[in-house]
Amino acid sequence: MIMDPNADDRLDRAFMALADPVRRRIIARLSRGPATVNELAEPFAITKQAVSKHIQVLEHAGLVTRTREAQRRPVHLDAAGLEALTAWIDRYRLIHEQRFRNLDALLATDRGPHVAASDAGTTAGPAQEATEP
Amino acid sequence: MIMDPNADDRLDRAFMALADPVRRRIIARLSRGPATVNELAEPFAITKQAVSKHIQVLEHAGLVTRTREAQRRPVHLDAAGLEALTAWIDRYRLIHEQRFRNLDALLATDRGPHVAASDAGTTAGPAQEATEP
DNA sequence: AAGTTGATCAAGCATCAGGTTGAATAAAGG
DNA sequence: CCTTTATTCAACCTGATGCTTGATCAACTT
Fold first, then answer.
1. For the residues B48-71, what does the mean pLDDT come to?
2. Three-state DSSP state, A76
3. Contact of A23 with A14, CB cutoff 8 Å
4. For the residues A58-72, what does the mean pLDDT come to?
5. Residue of A nearest to B10 (CA)
6. Which helix (H) or strand (E) holds A25?
7. Residue of B8, B13, B34 lying closest to A122 (CB–CB)
8. What are the tens digits of pLDDT across the range B94-119?
9. For chain B, first and last CA: distance in Å?
């Protein structure tokens, strides 16, 4: 698959899209099946134009897709877009946990660790990085 | 400082915090161990004040914590904060996939599905929701 | 053709997020 | 004490967001 030149922008838009409670509720609704703009706008106290904009944000973030059906444009959830986010988060969660396992192993074998915890932290990694591996 | 009783606000801040490439790179760095503001600011072409603000955003979002150590304030990753985000995303990803499994089962037993796919979608859920279950 | 429904475009406005510079605080080290 | 180091606070600018109202487009319905 093609990795678009700046995957950063994709993540920017996706995380930003979920940083709004209205858009999160739209995602929650779409997880139960596609819906039109009117249907999606119904629970909210804002105009349909505003909801339409929210959907455009979600679409541009790669979290939803749209089809044509007469004059309606049903919105569908795109699970792959969500998965990209959990993939990013989980990567660093796992690196973080791995670091703790390494530290635990070190403390188990080496007796007499009189260094502070934070000091041990700064020297735990072999510094293998560039720009978001 | 009072802890807001609104879980929405916490998700707002957490997703918003990750919607910035600088803050994501800070998270990536912290996954390898704690670091000070100066260390975190070094790879960036912005001022330390700006990085300090970014760290405050991450802290307010519950993604990092800070300790005191002489005049330095090492920043530590808070894995629990990240986990809350994957938990939110995965919930709706799973609901979405479950819906597909239900739809597949329906199409396997019921012969004669002449309705459009999107129409089937709008009637798939029994509408059991309030505000983000 | 005329009207209705569904959704978007466009312009305007209030608020906020990210960045800067400059001054202020806090803890070490002379 | 004064100086250096590490970090934050305060004021300010700029551009983006979220929302509104009013007009426009596209596809049915009659």
1. 97
2. strand
3. no
4. 96
5. A19
6. helix A21-30
7. B34
8. 999 988 887 777 777 765 444 444 44
9. 28
What distance in Å separates residue A90's CA from the closest CA in chain B?
A: 8
Name the one residue in this structure whose structure tokens are 């979600």: A58
Q: What is the mean pLDDT of residues A73-97?
A: 96
Per the listing, tokens 């950063």 go with A8
Residue closest to B13 by CA, chosen among A18, A54, A67, A73: A18
Q: Which amino acid, residue B20?
A: D
What are the backbone dihedrals phi and psi of residue B2, each rounded to the nearest 5 degrees, phi first? -95, 140
Parallel, antiparallel or unpaired: strands A75-77 and B75-77: unpaired
Q: Which residue has the tokens 């009189």?
A: A114
Please give the model's pTM, rounded to 2 decimal places. 0.82
Give the ranges where B32-113 is alpha helix by DSSP (H). 37-41, 48-60, 79-109
Residues in chain A: 133
Q: Rounded to an integer, what distance in angstroms lies between the CA atom of residue B47 and that of residue B54?
A: 11
Q: State how far the Cα of A58 lies from the Cα of B43, in Å rounded to an integer.
A: 31
Which residues 32-71 of A have a C-beta within 8 angstroms of B?
Answer: 32-35, 39, 67, 69
Task: Give the angle subtended at the CA of B34 by the CAs of A84 and A9, to the nearest 5°.
Answer: 30
